[in-house]
Amino acid sequence: MAEWAGLKVWVIPQTEDEVICVYPDDPDSCSTVNFTKSLDDCFKWLVPKLKYYHMDNQDKPEHWAMVSIDGVHFRDNYGETPALALCKTIEKMIDKEVKDES
Q1: How far apart are CA 64 and CA 87, in angstroms?
Q2: Rounded CA gap, 65 and 67, in Å?
Q3: pLDDT digits (tens, 9 = 90+) for 59-73
Q4: Which residue among 37, 58, 79, 91 is least enclosed by CB atoms within 10 Å?
Q5: Residue 68 contacts residue 50 (beta carbons within 8 Å)
């Protein structure tokens, strides 16, 4: 997802969880991110690339998100957290873009 957002990625080795460090231009300005766990990271780095997004849980234990880019809407109905639902939906959109380019 970070590459899709136009960021350069460096995976920090030897960490318990995979830690991703992203930076727009200068590696010295690297920021660690965890898109699936942090809405702040999603809104800082991913959401600005979208034309539209909507998130809700409709009083259910799972969250869902809908995103749009170039007039095509993608929606996913699962995610234990809002960040996870948003990431899964964006990932679905990215997969579709890659498939269409093939």
Answers
A1: 10
A2: 7
A3: 667 787 888 877 777
A4: 58
A5: yes
User: Is the Cβ–Cβ distance between 67 and 50 less than 8 Å?
Assistant: yes
Neighbours of 89 (CB within 10 A): 25
Burial 1-30 (b: 16+ CB within 10 A, else e): bbeebebeeeeeeeeeeeebbbeeeeeeee
The two tokens of residue 25 are 């231009």
Give the pLDDT confidence of 5-33 residue by residue, as tens digits: 888 777 766 555 556 777 667 767 777 78
| Nearest Cα residue to 20 out of 65, 82, 76, 87 | 87
Give 8-101's CATH code, choosing from 1.10.490, 3.30.200, 3.30.420, 3.30.2120: 3.30.2120
Distance CA(46)–CA(33), nearest Å, equals 11
Extents of the domains making up the chain = 8-101
